Task: structure prediction
Amino acid sequence: MVLFNDTEPPKQPTVFSKTIKWVFRFVILGIVLVLFFIGSLHLLQGSGDTQRNGLQQALSELTNTIADIKVLNDFQLFPQLVVDASGIVLKDRETADLIMRMRGMRFAAPGSVVFSYDAVVNDLYIENMSLYRNGLPAVTVDTARIEKNQSDQTAELLVDGKDREGSWRYSMPINYFKGTGEAYDYFELPEKKYFEFEKANGTSINGHFFSHEEKLYVSGVADLAETNQFSEELAGQEGICFTSIISIENGQVLMRDTVLKNEGEQLFEGSGSYTIKDGFSFNVAPVSESDKFLKCEGDE
Result:
């Protein structure tokens, strides 16, 4: 078992930061390029059918789905990037099966994010977004939003939702910068990316994302309910330390080289994946020792 000392100050942006920032830039730049390609400058702001159809086509190209936007309330690219839409639906191009349905969303960011390195936002709100599996909602996000505390200038990304096990909440502290004059408030991911995930059935995870040896890791402590989607082997146990490599490949969220340690010091190794179609799959098995990277709270 290899332990990691994270007391040294970071010298370069982490793999996680680079990944988020470049994905963010790619999506926005992709929308811009598609809009330019299909309709020139007059598409770059407004809420009419021309802009709605242009954004609809851009979303279809970026997600490789059939996209439909019922209502475009507001759209502009400069000086601020704003997308405010209702009734968003994504369907499979080959089968026309429903993939996602969203009642409404609003996203705002500085227009400069198209060309800058930083991923910052001015506003984010998503209402009633469901991901479908076999014709039924597998995961529903009731709301995703940024909540800010004006008194101490702190903010949180809060996502409330439910799946077939019940309701859950994901939260992550983010940096909040108050605008001055005519400038908008803005938010960005902090250097240390801690999060909490809690389910109504008693499952909870407290962890953080970090980079190690140029790989993106998630590490933390989990309490698992007797019935949970993560592991039957560890069901009902608390204080499970875990570390895993995270990657996204071919539409799957993959967890590789996962190593866990329960309160009885028993080690486990495993791997898992998540897809909209198949849901979450995770397999672990006990081992006598492990040479995989494990970082537990309090490790020196």
Remarks:
- Residues 15-39 form the longest helix (25 residues).
- Residues 10-191 form one domain.
- The first strand starts at residue 66 and ends at 76.
- Confidence is low (pLDDT under 50) at residues 1-11, 36-42.
